[in-house]
Automatic annotation (TrEMBL):
The keyword Transferase applies. It comes from Kribbella karoonensis. Residues 162-223 form the ANTAR domain. InterPro entries: ANTAR, CheY-like_superfamily, GAF, GAF-like_dom_sf, GAF_ANTAR, WH-like_DNA-bd_sf. Coiled coil: none annotated. Pfam families: ANTAR, GAF_2. Keywords: Kinase, Transcription, Transcription regulation, Transferase. This is GAF and ANTAR domain-containing protein. SMART domains: ANTAR, GAF.
Protein backbone atom coordinates (compact mmCIF):
# COMPACT_ATOMS: atom_id res chain seq x y z
CA UNK A 1 0.00 0.00 0.00
CA UNK A 2 1.47 3.38 -0.97
CA UNK A 3 1.93 6.28 1.42
CA UNK A 4 -1.09 8.22 0.04
CA UNK A 5 -3.15 5.03 0.34
CA UNK A 6 -2.08 4.62 3.97
CA UNK A 7 -3.01 8.22 4.73
CA UNK A 8 -6.38 7.73 3.04
CA UNK A 9 -6.98 4.51 5.02
CA UNK A 10 -6.08 6.22 8.30
CA UNK A 11 -8.56 9.00 7.57
CA UNK A 12 -11.16 6.48 6.51
CA UNK A 13 -10.91 4.48 9.72
CA UNK A 14 -10.90 7.64 11.82
CA UNK A 15 -14.27 8.51 10.28
CA UNK A 16 -15.46 4.94 10.88
CA UNK A 17 -14.51 5.11 14.56
CA UNK A 18 -16.52 8.32 14.96
CA UNK A 19 -19.56 6.88 13.14
CA UNK A 20 -19.53 3.69 15.21
CA UNK A 21 -19.07 5.62 18.45
CA UNK A 22 -22.06 7.81 17.61
CA UNK A 23 -24.33 4.85 16.80
CA UNK A 24 -26.96 4.65 19.58
CA UNK A 25 -27.37 0.85 19.70
CA UNK A 26 -26.44 -2.57 18.34
CA UNK A 27 -28.69 -2.40 15.26
CA UNK A 28 -27.48 1.07 14.36
CA UNK A 29 -23.85 -0.02 14.85
CA UNK A 30 -24.28 -2.96 12.47
CA UNK A 31 -25.98 -0.75 9.89
CA UNK A 32 -23.10 1.72 10.12
CA UNK A 33 -20.60 -1.10 9.56
CA UNK A 34 -22.21 -2.41 6.36
CA UNK A 35 -22.79 1.06 4.93
CA UNK A 36 -19.19 2.02 5.67
CA UNK A 37 -17.83 -1.22 4.19
CA UNK A 38 -19.68 -0.60 0.95
CA UNK A 39 -18.21 2.91 0.71
CA UNK A 40 -14.64 2.09 1.77
CA UNK A 41 -14.00 -1.09 -0.21
CA UNK A 42 -14.35 -2.27 -3.80
CA UNK A 43 -17.62 -4.07 -3.18
CA UNK A 44 -21.07 -3.90 -4.71
CA UNK A 45 -22.85 -5.24 -1.63
CA UNK A 46 -22.11 -5.80 2.05
CA UNK A 47 -23.74 -7.61 4.92
CA UNK A 48 -23.37 -8.86 8.49
CA UNK A 49 -24.61 -12.15 9.92
CA UNK A 50 -24.43 -13.02 13.62
CA UNK A 51 -24.62 -16.19 15.70
CA UNK A 52 -25.04 -16.07 19.48
CA UNK A 53 -24.06 -18.95 21.75
CA UNK A 54 -23.65 -21.35 18.87
CA UNK A 55 -27.15 -20.71 17.54
CA UNK A 56 -28.12 -20.72 13.88
CA UNK A 57 -26.76 -17.76 11.93
CA UNK A 58 -29.10 -14.79 11.62
CA UNK A 59 -29.05 -11.96 9.10
CA UNK A 60 -28.26 -8.74 10.97
CA UNK A 61 -27.90 -6.19 8.16
CA UNK A 62 -27.52 -6.07 4.38
CA UNK A 63 -27.13 -3.32 1.82
CA UNK A 64 -29.16 -5.16 -0.83
CA UNK A 65 -31.73 -8.01 -1.04
CA UNK A 66 -29.16 -9.91 -3.14
CA UNK A 67 -27.16 -10.46 0.06
CA UNK A 68 -30.26 -11.62 1.92
CA UNK A 69 -30.84 -14.32 -0.70
CA UNK A 70 -27.15 -15.26 -0.57
CA UNK A 71 -27.27 -15.63 3.21
CA UNK A 72 -30.62 -17.43 3.32
CA UNK A 73 -29.39 -20.10 0.93
CA UNK A 74 -26.31 -20.77 3.04
CA UNK A 75 -28.20 -20.73 6.34
CA UNK A 76 -30.78 -23.18 4.95
CA UNK A 77 -28.15 -25.60 3.67
CA UNK A 78 -25.65 -24.89 6.46
CA UNK A 79 -22.99 -24.69 3.78
CA UNK A 80 -21.04 -21.89 2.14
CA UNK A 81 -18.35 -19.30 2.85
CA UNK A 82 -20.53 -17.56 5.46
CA UNK A 83 -20.98 -20.78 7.44
CA UNK A 84 -17.29 -21.66 7.14
CA UNK A 85 -16.21 -18.19 8.29
CA UNK A 86 -18.58 -18.44 11.28
CA UNK A 87 -17.62 -21.95 12.37
CA UNK A 88 -13.89 -21.74 11.75
CA UNK A 89 -13.58 -18.01 12.49
CA UNK A 90 -11.37 -17.54 9.50
CA UNK A 91 -11.60 -15.29 6.45
CA UNK A 92 -12.90 -16.84 3.23
CA UNK A 93 -12.03 -15.39 -0.18
CA UNK A 94 -13.66 -16.45 -3.44
CA UNK A 95 -12.20 -14.87 -6.56
CA UNK A 96 -15.02 -16.12 -8.78
CA UNK A 97 -18.06 -18.08 -7.64
CA UNK A 98 -18.47 -19.55 -11.13
CA UNK A 99 -15.07 -21.28 -11.01
CA UNK A 100 -14.66 -21.98 -7.27
CA UNK A 101 -15.68 -25.60 -6.71
CA UNK A 102 -16.00 -25.54 -2.91
CA UNK A 103 -19.66 -24.48 -2.98
CA UNK A 104 -20.98 -25.05 -6.52
CA UNK A 105 -24.60 -24.53 -5.40
CA UNK A 106 -23.83 -20.82 -4.82
CA UNK A 107 -23.45 -20.20 -8.55
CA UNK A 108 -27.04 -21.05 -9.39
CA UNK A 109 -28.38 -19.64 -6.12
CA UNK A 110 -27.05 -16.08 -6.40
CA UNK A 111 -25.56 -15.33 -9.83
CA UNK A 112 -25.33 -11.59 -9.02
CA UNK A 113 -22.43 -12.29 -6.65
CA UNK A 114 -19.12 -13.25 -8.26
CA UNK A 115 -16.49 -12.10 -5.72
CA UNK A 116 -16.75 -12.95 -2.01
CA UNK A 117 -14.74 -11.85 1.01
CA UNK A 118 -16.16 -13.02 4.35
CA UNK A 119 -14.28 -11.85 7.44
CA UNK A 120 -15.10 -13.10 10.97
CA UNK A 121 -16.26 -10.85 13.80
CA UNK A 122 -16.13 -11.60 17.52
CA UNK A 123 -17.74 -9.62 20.33
CA UNK A 124 -16.24 -11.34 23.37
CA UNK A 125 -13.90 -14.00 24.71
CA UNK A 126 -16.35 -16.21 26.59
CA UNK A 127 -18.22 -19.29 25.35
CA UNK A 128 -21.41 -17.19 25.28
CA UNK A 129 -20.05 -14.47 23.06
CA UNK A 130 -21.54 -13.49 19.76
CA UNK A 131 -19.62 -14.32 16.63
CA UNK A 132 -20.40 -13.00 13.22
CA UNK A 133 -19.23 -12.38 9.70
CA UNK A 134 -18.72 -9.15 7.80
CA UNK A 135 -19.39 -10.04 4.17
CA UNK A 136 -18.11 -8.05 1.20
CA UNK A 137 -19.45 -8.97 -2.23
CA UNK A 138 -19.02 -7.81 -5.80
CA UNK A 139 -20.90 -8.44 -9.03
CA UNK A 140 -17.61 -8.88 -10.94
CA UNK A 141 -14.94 -11.60 -10.48
CA UNK A 142 -11.44 -11.04 -9.04
CA UNK A 143 -12.40 -7.76 -7.39
CA UNK A 144 -10.74 -8.05 -3.99
CA UNK A 145 -7.03 -7.27 -3.78
CA UNK A 146 -4.55 -8.00 -1.01
CA UNK A 147 -5.03 -4.42 0.17
CA UNK A 148 -8.80 -4.93 0.28
CA UNK A 149 -8.29 -8.01 2.46
CA UNK A 150 -6.05 -6.07 4.85
CA UNK A 151 -8.56 -3.21 5.09
CA UNK A 152 -11.42 -5.67 5.59
CA UNK A 153 -9.64 -7.24 8.56
CA UNK A 154 -9.05 -3.83 10.15
CA UNK A 155 -12.67 -2.90 9.52
CA UNK A 156 -13.78 -6.17 11.11
CA UNK A 157 -11.69 -5.42 14.20
CA UNK A 158 -13.24 -1.97 14.52
CA UNK A 159 -16.69 -3.47 14.04
CA UNK A 160 -16.08 -6.20 16.62
CA UNK A 161 -15.05 -3.69 19.29
CA UNK A 162 -17.97 -1.38 18.47
CA UNK A 163 -20.50 -4.25 18.58
CA UNK A 164 -19.14 -5.52 21.90
CA UNK A 165 -19.37 -2.01 23.36
CA UNK A 166 -22.88 -1.40 22.01
CA UNK A 167 -24.11 -4.77 23.29
CA UNK A 168 -22.59 -4.12 26.72
CA UNK A 169 -24.18 -0.68 26.92
CA UNK A 170 -27.59 -2.07 25.95
CA UNK A 171 -27.26 -4.82 28.56
CA UNK A 172 -26.29 -2.27 31.20
CA UNK A 173 -29.20 -0.01 30.21
CA UNK A 174 -31.62 -2.94 30.50
CA UNK A 175 -30.22 -3.76 33.94
CA UNK A 176 -30.68 -0.17 35.07
CA UNK A 177 -34.26 -0.15 33.75
CA UNK A 178 -34.97 -3.42 35.56
CA UNK A 179 -33.66 -2.03 38.86
CA UNK A 180 -35.85 1.06 38.44
CA UNK A 181 -38.94 -1.08 37.79
CA UNK A 182 -38.28 -3.32 40.77
CA UNK A 183 -37.74 -0.26 42.95
CA UNK A 184 -41.09 1.21 41.86
CA UNK A 185 -42.87 -2.08 42.45
CA UNK A 186 -41.30 -2.41 45.91
CA UNK A 187 -42.54 1.08 46.74
CA UNK A 188 -46.10 0.07 45.81
CA UNK A 189 -45.94 -3.03 48.03
CA UNK A 190 -44.36 -1.14 50.94
CA UNK A 191 -47.16 1.43 50.87
CA UNK A 192 -49.98 -1.06 50.33
CA UNK A 193 -48.94 -3.67 52.91
CA UNK A 194 -46.91 -1.45 55.25
CA UNK A 195 -43.79 -3.60 54.93
CA UNK A 196 -40.13 -2.71 54.71
CA UNK A 197 -37.96 -2.96 51.60
CA UNK A 198 -36.61 -6.43 52.36
CA UNK A 199 -40.11 -7.83 52.78
CA UNK A 200 -41.35 -6.10 49.63
CA UNK A 201 -38.49 -7.56 47.61
CA UNK A 202 -39.15 -11.02 49.08
CA UNK A 203 -42.79 -10.77 47.95
CA UNK A 204 -41.76 -9.85 44.39
CA UNK A 205 -39.19 -12.65 44.31
CA UNK A 206 -41.70 -15.24 45.54
CA UNK A 207 -44.25 -14.26 42.88
CA UNK A 208 -41.49 -14.39 40.27
CA UNK A 209 -40.54 -17.92 41.28
CA UNK A 210 -44.12 -19.19 41.74
CA UNK A 211 -45.24 -17.95 38.33
CA UNK A 212 -41.92 -18.64 36.55
CA UNK A 213 -41.87 -14.99 35.45
CA UNK A 214 -38.86 -12.71 35.30
CA UNK A 215 -38.61 -10.36 38.26
CA UNK A 216 -38.59 -7.39 35.90
CA UNK A 217 -41.86 -8.57 34.29
CA UNK A 218 -43.52 -9.13 37.69
CA UNK A 219 -42.55 -5.59 38.66
CA UNK A 220 -43.83 -4.16 35.35
CA UNK A 221 -47.18 -5.93 35.75
CA UNK A 222 -47.59 -4.65 39.31
CA UNK A 223 -46.82 -1.10 38.18
CA UNK A 224 -49.22 -1.32 35.20
CA UNK A 225 -52.14 -3.10 36.89
CA UNK A 226 -51.50 -2.53 40.62
CA UNK A 227 -51.90 -6.32 40.91
CA UNK A 228 -49.44 -9.18 41.23
CA UNK A 229 -49.59 -12.04 38.68
CA UNK A 230 -51.59 -15.12 39.65
Amino acid sequence: MTEPDLAHSADTFARLAIELHDAPGVEETIDAVVQFAQQALSCTYAGVALSTRGSRAEIAAVTDPVVTAFYEQQIATESGPLITALRERTAVLIHDTTTDDRWPELVTGTPAIRSVLDVPLATGDTPRHTVGVLGLYAAEPDVFTTDDEAIAHVLAQHASVALASARHEETMAQAVDARKLVGQAMGILMERFDVDGDRAFAILKRYSQDTNTKLRDVAQQLIDTRKLPH
